[in-house]
Structures are given as structure tokens and as C-alpha cells.
Specification:
Elements (H helix, E strand, L loop, with lengths): L1 E5 L2 H8 L11 H8 L4 E8 L2 E10 L4 E9 L8 H15 L4 E6 L4 H9 L3 E6 L2 E7 L1
Parallel strand pairs: 4-5
Antiparallel strand pairs: 1-2, 2-3, 3-4, 5-7, 6-7
Length: 137
Amino acid sequence: MMLVRVGTLDEALQVLQGVGELGQGCTHATYMQRLAGRRHLVLVAEQGGELVGFKVGYALDRRRFYSWVGGIHPAHRRQGIAQALLETQQRWAAAQGYDSIEVKTSQAFPQMVALLERNGYQPQGEAEGKLLYRRVL
């Protein structure tokens, strides 16, 4: 059985270590620097007591929430974990009064692009060399 819950940065980093395509070098300090002074949410997914996925986001301003980084351990993909994390983040953001969620991704991650589009995220062009998507909540 899968459980999605609020987690810690250390838990998110534990999962990140097993998600090679996201690149290494993200440390607790890196995350803390990005999240410092911002309202944020760290979600983790557990399956059988094992951490298998994560999603980290933060407020851009009072109305917009940014879904910054997330990943699923390769051995646990295609089981609905990313969908569950996305839905949990959306519910949380809406309950906190955010009007929209923004996400940046790349064509290098076609599964992420498909997930976003299936869930009503609209392309907004490019930003910083990445594809920008937005969903109104």
C-alpha cells in the first residue's frame, strides 16, 4: 500500500539519491538555501515502509506555488506514485489559498510532460531554457 505524507528534506534527498537523471550534488544545504524564507511543502511517498518518491515545492508569491523538484525511484515507476504526489500537492496548495501551480520541466522528461498535460497543466512557453507549465487551481 502506498502512503503520501508530508516529509522532511532529508527524506526527499534520500529518494533523490536513487533518481540518477535528476543529477547529483543537491545537498541539504542546497535545498535549505532555495527554501529559506519561503513557505514550502515537502511530500514523500512510501510503499511497504520504503521511501519511493518525493515532491518539493514553494511559494513564488501569495497566489502562485512552484512545484520545484520531484522524482520516483526507478524500481517504483508506473505505479501511480507521481500522480498521487501531484494530486496531494494540488490539494494542499488550493487549501492554502494559492490560485495556481507552476512547473518547469524539459522535453528530456516526456513522462513528466505527459503527466502535467493529463492533469490540466497548460504550456506557458519557455523560461530559463525549460518548458513552463501552469495549472489554475
